[in-house]
Structure formats: C-alpha cells, structure tokens
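Throughout our pipeline, every protein is held as a single compact record rather than as scattered files. This encoding replaces a full spatial description with a residue-level series of whole-number codes. The remainder of this section carries one protein's record, kept here as part of the documentation.
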Amino acid sequence: MKMTLLGLAILLMAAGAPRGAGAAEIKVLTAGAFKQVVVALVPEFEKQTGHKVTVDNETVGGLLRRIDGGEAFDVLFISPGAITELTKKGKIVEGSSVPLAKVGVGVMVKAGAPKPDVSTVAAFKKALLDAKSVAYIDPASGGSSGIYVAGLLDKLGIADQVKPKAKLKKGGYVADLIKSGEAELGIHQISEIVPVKEVTLVGPLPAEIQNYTTYSGGLGSAAKDPEAARALLKVFTGPGAAELLKSKGMELPKS
C-alpha cells in the first residue's frame, strides 16, 4: 500500500518536524536508488515546516566527485562507506550519520512480456544467456548496481557471452531501455524498477547472489540551517518509515 498524504503528515509529526520555525532552503544530494523515498517525503515536509527543499540525484561515484570538487549541500543520502569517507574529510558532521534503508537487485522485463525464471542461480544464468539483450547501469558511471552486475557476470562465468549484447545506462533508470524496447531484460535495484509502470519486476536476484545496497543519511558540515536539515533527516527514521520504504521497493536496513 502506498503511503497516503495523511500517513506522510503523521510520519513528519511523529519525527518531530518543526512547524513555522522559519523558512530555510535545504539542498539534498541523493544517490539514485533512494531518490524515490526522498521525493515522496519532500512535498509534505515542505508543507508542514515551511522549508524549501531542492533534490539532486546522481550515482554514488558521481556525487563523491562533485562533493570532492567543492559542491555544497545540507543533507546527503548515500552509502554508509561514502558517508564514512566524507566524514573523515570534514564534509559530513561527525556523529550525524543514520542508517535508513537497504535495497536489493532485481530483474525486469517490459510489461506484458513473458517473465523468465530467475528463482535460482542456474535459472538466472539461463535467462541472461537466452535474452537477446541485457541492460544494466554502466559500471564506469559509478552506479553501485552496475559495478555489482559487471562483477557478477564474471563470477558466473558468462561475461563473455553477455557483454556483447549488453545495453549500458549511464545513470537514471535502466527501465527506460526496457520500456523503449532497446533491451529485453534489465537488471537494476528494485526501487528503480517498482515506480516504472511500463515494466514488470520479474523478481529479486537469488539469495546466493543477491547484493544489498544500504543507504545512510548525513548532515553536511556546511549546512546553512543545521536545525532544519536535522529535522529532514529525522523524518526518515520515523515510525512510518517502513511502510514508505516498502512501497518504494526498499526495506529497513536491519530487516
């Protein structure tokens, strides 16, 4: 069930988001897979608090390059390892990191197309080999799912067969290549598949080869209004977070 506006309001109030505390402008940088959760919460957060939130997303690698290049931000949603690295560099406030969600990798086809069996490692390998084309994030772009898929193909011993028919996406939705017909089978984080109506989630990768990406939030050391930024961060750990994450194809990090 999707989170309703009332549910979002309850989540915000339970998290202690301040009302009428003075409008602030909050710049959020987020890794792509967590964007759907952020975008779902921002409008109601703005309504409840009066703050203005701008959201920009990119791959983990891309965000790290931008931040290392001096780009300022108030709140960052990214992998825990990246948070730790940026904290050491003084870009994230020490002790502000909070674990928020995890998401696994899934397989998709165009809506209405036959769904291959991906329930076992052997079946997944067969599905990849049988597909005319396979889409995933370009590892060179720094996307975590693309890097993992590239390594997985090598691990499964089918890289030489799959790479010639691979359709690589340089960020954004792999689903775009599936719904346009450019690729038959797509592999991406489940939260990047669920929102796209024109594609169907066949299923997650088998447990033996599943890879979870965990997301954490952190407060930028150069945040213009730390109190407002902390209020936004707190929303994502409220009691209604699990319901919202589930609706976006994600899970709580400890589940």
Observations:
- The chain has ten helices and ten strands.
- Residues 105-209 form a domain with the D-Maltodextrin-Binding Protein; domain 2 fold (CATH 3.40.190.10).
